[in-house]
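S1.2 Input.
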Amino acid sequence: MSPPSDVAPVSQDHIERYISYGAAAALLPMFVDYALTFRDERRYIWPKARLCRYAKMYMATRYLGLAAQILNVSFAIWRASQTYIAPSLCRSWYTYQAIIIQALVAVVDGLLMRGVYAIFSRSYWILSVLAVLAAAQPGSMLASAVTTLPDAPFTPTCLVAEVHFGLIYFGSVTLTTHAVILLLIVWKYFAGGHAHALFRTAIRDSTLAVAAILTIMIITLLCAVGVIGIGVISNIICYWFFCALWVSAGRIIVGWEAARNSEAGAGVGVLTSHITIADNASVYGLSELGSEVQKGV
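S1.3 Output.
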């Protein structure tokens, strides 16, 4: 389909091609991570896939997420063919992007917050802080989507022609959330929490996840405020953000379950993230991922 006569053709044909390369490159870390974690996935996740909600979450995130990213890359490659894409379809596409990214953000933030809550021995003030951050996250995405998508300018090939300032809502809240999570993890590490295997696992996987997400959010904010201009970087950032979230979700679930099995086999008490009203909230119990299998949840 060719563009209507009142729409000017894209002058920089190479931009779409470079964006398709950058989008395709975001698949590479996902395939590598899948290969590296497949053995642990088969060992720790598959036996519990029917009984444990976190195993179900892992399977859904892992395989539906990978399929969604392949669809994203396919769209980027199609866009590079210089096919005219109607603005209504562009808005639908970016709405879909906002939904799947928010879903992954919710999964990763939930996992990170669960880990922080556990390593702080189920502290109620930590739970309160995390609850506020969790409530703010979807609200910020909604605010950014509502202010950005209705009047967002697109090129004839569905590239973002101008980064809207409304992205700062989602970017700033996401940046703040993960900065707080990283601060709490580092604080607990220097307070001596690294003596426990689950502490070490949470610190390792959560810190790597948060560092990757923080880096991408900083770039997003720089695009939103105009420091980074419109071009390849601003149009591929969503693919790499999706990649970072997908890898983080899988690593955190597999890492926690591997550590739980290691300590359970050694007869060591395992941290729990169950919300409790017991007087002694620091008592160790079975982790949620393991206890759900026993209960058949």
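S1.4 Remarks. The chain is about 70% helix and 0% strand.
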